[in-house]
Amino acid sequence: MRPAHPGSRRARGLSRRHFALALPSALLASGCAAPHRGTGRPGDPVVLTLLSHYASGELKRALQGPVDEWNATHDRVKVRTKAVEFTDLLTTFMVRQAAGQGADILHPYCLWNGQLVRAGVLRPAPPEHAEEIRRGYSPAAVGAASVGGRVYGYPTETQTYALYYNKRLLREAGLDGPPRTWRELEETAYRTARRDRYGNTLVQGFGLSTVDDSTTVGQTLALLSAAGGRFVSADGRSTAIDAPAGRAVFDLEHRLVAAGASDPGVNVYQAFPSGQVTMVISAGWWTGSLKPLMGRDYRDVGVAPVPLPDADGRRATLSTGFMLGVNTASEHPREAWEFLRWLNAGKVRVPGAGKGGSVTRMSALQVSVGSLTGRADDMRTLLGKGGAVGKGGAGGDPNLRPFLDALAYAVPEPNVPGAQQAKTLLRKNIEALWTGQQSAGEALRTIRRQVDQEVSRSW
Amino acid sequence: MVNALTPEAAERAAATPRSARPAVGARGRTRHRQAVVAYLFLAPALLFFAVFLILPLGFALVLSMSHWAGFRLGDIDPVGPDNFTGLFADGSTFLAPILTNTLLFALGTVALALAGSVIVATCIDRLRYQGLWRTLYFLPIVTTVVAVGNVWKYMYEPGGLVNGVLNAAGLGSVAFLQDPGTALPSVVVVQAWASAGSAILVLTAGLKSVPESYYEAAALDGAGPVTVFWRITLPLLRPSLLFVCVTQFLTGLQSFALIIVMTQGGPGDATNVAALEMYRQAFSYGDWGTASAAAFVLFVVVLLVTLVQLWIFRRKGEDA
């Protein structure tokens, strides 16, 4: 073997060493590098990041449309969307914020607002935006986007709760229409419930969901609102459920389970589309899922307002939602609010909506995916006679009407600091009630003790 | 002692004139250089442990005595032992049912998986195509927890396979995952089933190491299969059993993925365990202080349980 020239060996050795040094350095530099937020050179565009849970399918496409439109028409400020699944959204907010890489614009579930405000993540809306939000949205949507009376963002999708019912099962039981009072609800539930000889549920009269915190708590809080009760006091420092209204809701649910008209063991969200549940309380988004799932059988689905304890009672239900807010760590808050106003308050013409039919881009976006915003005027334009916006003609679905009407009287979900934990504690005690571990009184007292301890923490 | 100086050499070294001292200094420099090189070689491993073990451990310790919402490092607020006292305060659910559930879940899983895997491993040891059987029993290990959890969840449901079998036998349906009395045992069965594969693998290897001559001697003495199992197989399997017992218990104390898929800790707190509560406190409620305190409590529990297991097996003459 011919020995290599000393010079060439030296040269080769040096290059390897350089490579060995350069590779980790390059990796380190790229890993530690700040996220791309524009070049920072004068004249170059500002790049805003928007982090949402619109991670896949039509939601992602629906948001990307207006963002592309903004980018095409605005040279100075560009927007880049980032998305994660909803289940990872809060964690992603935390991790990115702690790492100094929080997005400029955040799209949180309003339940987390108290937690995010307490942690100093959300920037209050500037006065002109706050005024615009208060003026343009339903009280429930504004309440959900506010913490301690201050508005922190533009409400996006808003969900209200109503009673879904199966018309065919009601007809078979000789009933004309959905219940309007709790007494009628119970009678309907008992008349339509059926079980086989082994105790397996064939038809639930009234479905009670244990799928997750939101569905379990949502239906109970909708009934609580209808009874004039509240989960958390107005100042957000204590629970208010241990009161006659709370007691009435818990007694109602307990009676339904004990009598066999409800079976919390059955997944309501699978059983209802299969025609095995007569009635269930859920949010408006479900219509969008039921339609493709049930096909022709969707014609058997009806939606009515949440029944009231008494026929002459005042209507109320629960409302939940998301909002778009600006990160306190954003270097370009003014540009971020400018974009949010364009997306959420700037009106565009809607084809087929008749004369003067203009709505915000966000309203058009939400209705196109079968959801609603807290802008009642937009929703009427989009869901009215001429408004057939969105896939499958969401605008023509009469089942969306009760959710739209509920925008006027819905009560926002409490979003005080510790709201998520309070919600989970409520779910656990509701389940303990349904499974006979606790009586209604014990469950209410436990909730009061546990939730009071949580929401009263000042830190 | 290859490197030690012999007495003569030591005397010679002591008698070495001053002029020879530079040689000693050179040797010292060489050793120093070797030590530096050795540490340089160790540096990647040490850095790895520092970044992924020491640093998080230290951070968790700081957090366990602080309030932190998980967003800004500057907002860490020291509170002393408040988080620990909060975990055991009156009305807290951490000790009961959460920590109790954790121990029952781990204990039940180990007991079921160990008993099942000893029986299966002993059977496999007497069968043909042992590789095939081992592979079949190992399959749950390579299946994702989400898939395993969901399949079993459907099987447990009121109209599912298990209730179908009960109904076919003329029995009424059981709300396995919805009844607080049956939810935890039902999840324990699935965890044991899912983790038995690795135990079977270890135990079949342990069975192979038992000398055949023992069984031949027992057969000559007229010992029956039960006596052989209790007097020969089981005692000689003790090292493998210790390994399986310790590792399964550790896994059981820390796992929550199956529970989150099947019951989410419910109904109520019937299947809530410490690891799931820690996860919720940190990532859902933004209470990293309580989560870290719970993690340290769980660490102490795991340590104590492991020490007790090792002590029991050592008393019986086995070493980990």
Description:
- The complex is a heterodimer of chains A (459) and B (320).
- With 459 residues, chain A is an alpha/beta fold.
- Chain A has two domains: 46-158 and 320-399, Periplasmic binding protein-like II (D-Maltodextrin-Binding Protein, domain 2, 3-Layer(aba) Sandwich); 160-319 and 411-455, 3-Layer(aba) Sandwich (D-Maltodextrin-Binding Protein, domain 2).
- In chain A, 45% of the residues lie in helices and 16% in strands.
- Chain A has helices at residues 6-32, 57-73, 86-98, 113-118, 127-136, 139-144, 167-172, 182-192, 213-226, 244-258, 268-271, 285-294, 333-344, 361-368, 376-383, 401-406, 419-434, 440-455; strands at 46-52, 77-83, 105-106, 122-123, 146-147, 150-151, 154-166, 194-195, 201-207, 277-283, 301-304, 317-327, 347-349, 358-360, 410-412.
- In chain A, helix 9 crosses helix 17.
- The radius of gyration of chain A is 26 Å and the shape is globular.
- Chain B has two domains: 18-64; 83-315, MetI-like fold.
- Chain B has 14 helices and two strands, in the order H-H-E-E-H-H-H-H-H-H-H-H-H-H-H-H.
- A two-stranded antiparallel ribbon of chain B has the order 1-2.
- Mean pLDDT of chain B is 87; it is low at 1-5.
- Classes of the chains: A alpha/beta (459), B mainly alpha (320).
- At the A-B interface, helix 3, helix 4, helix 17 and helix 18 of A face helix 7 and helix 13 of B.
Tally of separate helices of chain A: 18
Distance between the termini of chain B: 29 Å
Mean pLDDT figure of chain B: 87
The CATH architecture name of the largest domain in chain A reads 3-Layer(aba) Sandwich
Give the number of domains of chain A.
2
Unreliable parts of chain A? 1-14, 30-36, 386-394
Superfamily (CATH H level) name of the largest domain in chain B? MetI-like
CATH superfamily of the largest domain in chain A: Periplasmic binding protein-like II
- The N- to C-terminal Cα distance of chain A equals 75 Å
**Number of E strands of chain B:** 2
β-strand percent of chain B reads under 5%
Into which percent range does the helicity of residues of chain A fall? 40-55%
Kindly report the greatest chain-chain contact and the residue count on each side: A-B, 40 and 36 residues
Strands ordered across the widest β-sheet of chain B: 1-2
By helix and strand content of chain B, what is the structural category? mainly alpha
Main location (chain B): membrane
Domain ABC transmembrane type-1 (chain B): 99-309
Subcellular location (chain B): Cell membrane
InterPro entries (chain B): ABC_transporter_permease, MetI-like, MetI-like_sf
